[in-house]
Amino acid sequence: MPPSLSPKPAAIHLEPPDHGSSPWHDAWSRLRKNHLAVSGGIILVALTLLCVFGPLFSQSYQDQSLDLGATAPGAAHWLGTDTLGRDLFARLLYGGRISLMVGLVATVVALTIGVAYGAVAGFLGGKTDRVMMRIVDIMYALPFTIFVILLMVFMKEPAEKLDAWLRNTVHLEGLQGFGNMLLLFAAIGAVEWLTMSRIVRGQVLSIKRMEFIEAARSLGFGRRRIIFRHILPNILGPIIVYSTLTVPAVMLLEAFLSFLGLGVQPPMSSWGVLIKDGAEKMEEFWWLLVFPGGVFSLTLFSLNFLGDGLRDALDVRTAKD
Questions:
Q1: How far is CA 66 from the centre of its chain?
Q2: Which of 3, 33, 113, 303 has a 20 to 30 A CA-CA distance from 278?
Q3: Helices and strands: H and E segment counts in the chain
Q4: pTM score, two decimals?
């Protein structure tokens, strides 16, 4: 057969390889479809940026007007002023810094202690689990508010010494009250981890006998690797949801301590302190309660929506693609 008449080989069409996607990419894709969660995240980011950078372009929360009485919202003061003539919008921005910082830092402290404690107790089991959880039960029996108050009282002197050292040695006047704030973080975080440890323990008990954990044991992986590389990633949903609920609870606890004179000290402020002040004068000056309460409620709703969305997106056992 002449070369020109020889049959041509059939063209082979190769499809591009499927590289797949990572679990985090899949979780982000699921999260973007949840409009309430995305809206909650946007609101939280906007509030955080406003509280961090807003005071740079507004007056100080200590500035007083010539009229010491409270004035209603208007062109001069968008959200009105308090009884000392201080702009409420500026106080909301400065107070938001402290409230968000207390909520986030204290929650991180409680999250770190509770997750590690509950994961170890649930994975080891046996007598170790019983002893560790009986310690949690004993601490639950104690009135945690009284425990926080005692801790704040007994540690007040070291906090004052830290403030004095910052003023005299480091010359950081802008960090006045930092020692008291650091003590507040530690005191609240030291009591908020109990429920987290129980939640994590229950989740660990439910999955530590599953096939993938047994496979990790058969491969000779150590306990630390199994706990932090195989178990904790599979219980991120409940952890994140409870963390988003802990932040507003911490804010409320901070407001209670500030009401007793053990939390945020004047002239500093927080959303909890503003709500407490507004509740005392709500019959005469409604804006002192409505605006701080509205911002706090908006933050709470945003945290709840974002927490639910993150739970649905990160729970690999219930995700349906």
A1: 39
A2: 303
A3: 13, 0
A4: 0.74
29 near 284, Cβ under 8 Å?
no
Superfamily grouping for domain 102-267+304-314:
MetI-like (1.10.3720.10)
Domain ranges of the chain: 102-267+304-314
Q: Specify the pLDDT at position 46.
A: 92
CB atoms within 10 A of CB 32: 12
Task: Find where tokens 């000779």 sit.
Answer: 220
The two tokens of residue 26 are: 């899949």
Name the average pLDDT for the chain.
78
Please tell me the distance from the alpha carbon of residue 91 to that of residue 78, in angstroms, as a whole number.
12
Residue 214's CB: how many other CB atoms inside 10 A? Answer: 11
**CA angle at residue 169 from 166 to 175, to 5 degrees?**
20
Closest of 270, 268, 271 to residue 295, by C-alpha: 271
Tell me the C-alpha distance between 305 and 39, whole Å: 8
